[in-house]
Amino acid sequence: MKSMAVLLWLLILSAFHAVALAQQTQFDITLGSSLTPTDHSSWFSPSGYFAFGFYKQTNGYAVGISIVGMPNKTAVWRANRNSPVVPRNGVLLLTRDGRLIVKAGSREIPVINPSRAIASASMLDTGNFVIYDSDRNVIWQSFDHPTNTLLPGQHISAGQQLRSSASEADDSLGIFRLKMQDDGNLVQYPVNTADSAPHTYYSTGTNGVGNNVSLHLDDDGLLYLLNSTKSLKNLTKGGYPRERTIIYMMKIDADGIFRVYSHSLNQQNSSVIWSSTNDGCDPKGLCGFNSFCTNIDDQVKCLCLPGFNYLIPGNWSAGCERNFTTETCRLKESTSKYYAMRTVENTGWEDSTYIVLGGTTKEDCEQACLQDCNCEAALFKDRECRKQRLPLRGALSDD
Ligand SMILES: *[C@@H]1O[C@H](CO)[C@@H](O)[C@H](O)[C@H]1NC(C)=O
Ligand SMILES: *[C@@H]1O[C@H](CO)[C@@H](O)[C@H](O)[C@H]1NC(C)=O
Ligand SMILES: *[C@@H]1O[C@H](CO)[C@@H](O)[C@H](O)[C@H]1NC(C)=O
Ligand SMILES: *[C@@H]1O[C@H](CO)[C@@H](O)[C@H](O)[C@H]1NC(C)=O
Ligand SMILES: *[C@@H]1O[C@H](CO)[C@@H](O)[C@H](O)[C@H]1NC(C)=O
Ligand SMILES: *[C@@H]1O[C@H](CO)[C@@H](O)[C@H](O)[C@H]1NC(C)=O
Ligand SMILES: *[C@@H]1O[C@H](CO)[C@@H](O)[C@H](O)[C@H]1NC(C)=O
């Protein structure tokens, strides 16, 4: 009797021991660990819901964090968004001297640049990938370096911005940004513009409310602005079910709109629960020079002006170019045989007016443009004829 009891005790003890060991090896990523795109491609969080490592991307692999178990791997963070993808024979290494790098052939590319040598790393259940030094201080975490996505518990601080991806299939840098400004306003702009009103296409209108406002997402889908400790403005209602198998996230999508998604890991589906706009034509810069945006039955498209073709087919932001060579102005002046005006109704354009003629009719406006060597287009509105030079740029000012 007595010996059986002892045996049982020993068994239980060793079972505990095994669990503790498994946790350590599985969750604490130690120096000398490595991953490859095809075999052992990820380090998982304890729940198994998040993975850090390689994921498929265009014609290679990217390094990042994704939600596991969705039919399409959903990336929530990516390293080196403006570097080429990693080839099949790449290796991700946590080196013995404490660096996290990708080795591709003879090249070594840092994945992150922490301030001190790394001692270990961990993929947490929150979706945060954390790097520790030898005193187990956090020296880097993905939550502090958001790319295009916010997860519950993560925030964007004053001065930080998210950047959209190039396309749904390509997480490299895209053409839209969402900035948490120092003035307390949360604003969207196209890239390569100043942070100024004419370029804005979304704003919470909260400028002047504080100098340390941040954007937060909670685990019930509540997306809100916070100034130090005070909730300033709720963008979503929140109050969505809190379940382990439902993950909310906010993402600035490739189309320039930011949305809050709900991912159900059980059902393996996701849905949009909130969107910054319902008009796909809102994002400025979606359509490049000499093109304009149309949204018919939720089908968003950039169309070229008559007589223009896409500069790079499939790339709307590259805009359109004339599909004919211009005749000399003398010919144009002498006869309108070579030129005709075409009407495009109800479009908005950035003002590039060099002359305004008042009190005209649409016909007078057309004639005035045809007879002017410098005129390449004219905006006609409220009996005013505004002569334009090319290129025309899509609605950069609201009217
Ligand atoms: C997965 O991706 C394919 C192709 O991009 C798409 O057709 C499909 O709707 C996606 N499925 C989910 C659940 O997002
Ligand atoms: C937060 O906002 C309140 C007004 O809503 C303002 O009085 C306060 O100074 C702000 N705090 C900070 C730290 O900006
Ligand atoms: C700014 O707000 C964050 C919380 O959002 C807080 O941790 C930080 O201490 C604040 N900084 C200042 C300078 O008030
Ligand atoms: C936002 O919603 C939360 C939760 O419902 C609430 O506590 C908070 O007061 C709201 N903030 C504002 C500014 O309405
Ligand atoms: C997933 O699909 C189920 C059944 O169609 C639906 O009830 C649920 O709302 C969906 N969940 C999400 C997050 O889209
Ligand atoms: C130019 O484009 C127009 C349509 O926008 C088309 O009718 C015309 O044939 C094109 N011309 C050339 C030279 O491609
Ligand atoms: C589209 O064209 C723009 C401007 O030429 C360029 O900056 C951008 O990288 C292109 N995007 C893609 C996805 O090729």
UniProtKB/TrEMBL annotation:
The record's section on InterPro entries has: Bulb-type_lectin_dom, Bulb-type_lectin_dom_sf, G-type_lectin_kinases/EP1-like, Pan_app, S_locus_glycoprot_dom
Give the signal peptide as a residue range, or say none if absent. Answer: 1-22
Which keywords does UniProt give here?
A: Disulfide bond, Glycoprotein, Signal
Domain (Apple): residue spans on this chain: 329-399
Q: SMART domains, from UniProt? A: B_lectin (SM00108)
The record, for PROSITE patterns, names: BULB_LECTIN, PAN
Domain Bulb-type lectin per the UniProt entry, residue ranges = 28-144
PANTHER family, per database record: G-TYPE LECTIN S-RECEPTOR-LIKE SERINE/THREONINE-PROTEIN KINASE SD2-5, RECEPTOR-LIKE SERINE_THREONINE-PROTEIN KINASE
Record-given protein name = Bulb-type lectin domain-containing protein
Recorded source organism is: Solanum bulbocastanum
